[in-house]
C-alpha cells in the first residue's frame, strides 16, 4: 500500500520505501490585477508586502520543506519526516490559502454580486446576502490570533457553511468543506493600513469580493 505524504500527492513513497519526488517547484502566482487596483480597500503598499514578501516566503519555505521531507525519507528518519511534514503542511496552507484569497478579490467596480444560483443559496441558508456577510464578518473578527474566515460549500449537507480555520490550516483537508471565499486575518494582511482595527478591514473586504469567481466556485463545488 502506498503512503502519500505532503501536498497533493507530490511526495510518494512506495511500499518498499523507495522515493519518487517530482522536481517541480512551487512558484508565486501572478496577481490578476495590479498592486494598486484594490485601493482604497487595500493599498498598493500593503499588497506589495503581503503578496511580494509574505506569500513568496510561504512558497520558498514550502519548497525547502519538501526537500527536507525527501532527505528524511531517503534516510528513513521517521522523526525528521514528521517534523518536516508539519513544516511543509503549514507552508502549503499559506500558499494555498493566499492563492484562493487573491483570486477571490477584484476592483470595487468589478465586484458585482452573486449569480442567481448562488444568491438563491445564500438567501436559503442565511436569509440574505447582508446577513451572510455580517455573520461571516463577526466569526472572522472573533478569531483569536491568526487565521482565516471562510464561505464554503458542504457537499454532504448540500448547503453553504461558514467556517474559521486557525493559522494556515487548509479548509478542505481539515473540515471537508469546499472553499468559495476567504478573509485573511493574519495581521500582515491589514496592519499597515488598518492598524489594530481588524473589524474595519473585515467589513471593507466585501467591497472587493469577486462575486464572479465566488459564483463559479459554487457551481463547480455543487458539481
From TrEMBL:
Signal peptide: none
Catalysis: reaction(s): 2 superoxide + 2 H(+) = H2O2 + O2
Keywords assigned by UniProt, alphabetized: Manganese, Metal-binding, Mitochondrion, Oxidoreductase
Subcellular localization, as worded in the UniProt entry: Mitochondrion
Annotated EC: 1.15.1.1
Cofactors named for this entry: Mn(2+)
Name by which UniProt lists this protein: Superoxide dismutase
Organism, as annotated: Brugia malayi (Filarial nematode worm)
